[in-house]
Specification:
Blueprint lengths: L4 H4 L3 H18 L1 H21 L6 H32 L1 H7 L4 H30 L6 H28 L5 H15 L11 H7 L3 H11 L9 H29 L1
Helix pairs in contact: 2-6, 3-4, 3-6, 4-6, 4-7, 4-8, 4-10, 6-7, 7-10, 7-11, 10-11
Length: 256
């Protein structure tokens, strides 16, 4: 008896769901990923935005900028360290030859990034609202969260490029050397207007600076740059690093 072709075709959404669920469970059990990713931004905000705050507006400003810092971590580490580790262990090669579509691998890590990012943002919102008396309109809370979720995509592309290029042994150190300085130099830890002028100019080449400025525009705390310039630069980062990831992957594929 001939079975209908549709019955033999796997449900793509179901594959995405299963692979995403698998990635989330793995990362939740990997305490070296889950604990720093979820708690470091909250810990820093507690110290610098609540306990040692220097002005009345500081808790609101830093809640938003530490949220940007918070979404960078899951993107860079889930893609960068995650892919490099799987390559080192051989799992990446196994998944390459498996029937699972390549898109499921990328989608699952994006879902993982978005879920961890949303948890970090919600934790920071809670700390800001309860312990720092941060008051925003509902539309502002929601819009900032949406901006941050979309803004994580360029960092996913950066992480994917690094994960495909770096060795598993060096990936955590290299990505930390990118993640932490980028966060500081973008004005995510202290307000950008406290920096010397040359550091403020340098910050403008960093994607985290532009995501922070878009988010701060929602609460009128940005430095006053053009919104579309910020969006254009983030889009350029997304496109350029996606292309770089494809190039690195194809070179790796030819060597193997």
């Amino acid at each position: 008896m001939n079975l209908p072709t549709k019955a033999l075709q796997p449900n793509l959404l179901h594959i995405y769901f299963l692979e995403s669920k698998n990635q989330i469970l793995i990362m939740m059990r990997t305490l070296g990923f889950s604990i720093p990713t979820l708690l470091f931004p909250v810990m820093f905000y507690t110290f610098f935005g609540i306990i040692f705050t220097m002005s009345a507006n500081m808790p609101t400003y830093l809640m938003v900028t530490y949220a940007v810092f918070g979404i960078m971590g899951p993107a860079l580490f889930a893609f960068g360290v995650g892919i490099a580790t799987e390559r080192g262990q051989g799992w990446f090669d196994i998944k390459e030859v498996s029937p699972m579509p390549a898109s499921a691998y990328i989608v699952s890590r994006i879902v993982l990034t978005l879920i961890f990012s949303l948890i970090v943002v919600m934790l920071l919102y809670f700390m800001g609202a309860v312990f720092a008396n941060v008051e925003l309109f509902r539309s502002q809370w929601l819009l900032i969260a949406i901006i941050l979720m979309l803004g994580s995509l360029p960092f996913c592309a950066i992480g994917m490029t690094l994960g495909l290029y770096l060795k598993s042994s060096s990936a955590p150190a290299v990505i930390n050397l990118i993640y932490l300085p980028m966060g500081f130099l973008s004005g995510l830890w202290i307000p950008i207007n406290l920096f010397p002028s040359y550091m403020q100019y340098f910050a403008q080449v960093l994607p985290s600076y532009h995501l922070a400025q878009i988010s701060l525009k929602v609460i009128d705390m940005d430095v006053g740059g053009n919104l579309w310039i910020h969006i254009l630069i983030l889009t350029a980062y997304l496109i350029v690093f996606t292309i770089l990831a494809i190039v690195v992957y194809n070179k790796k594929d030819k060597k193997s």
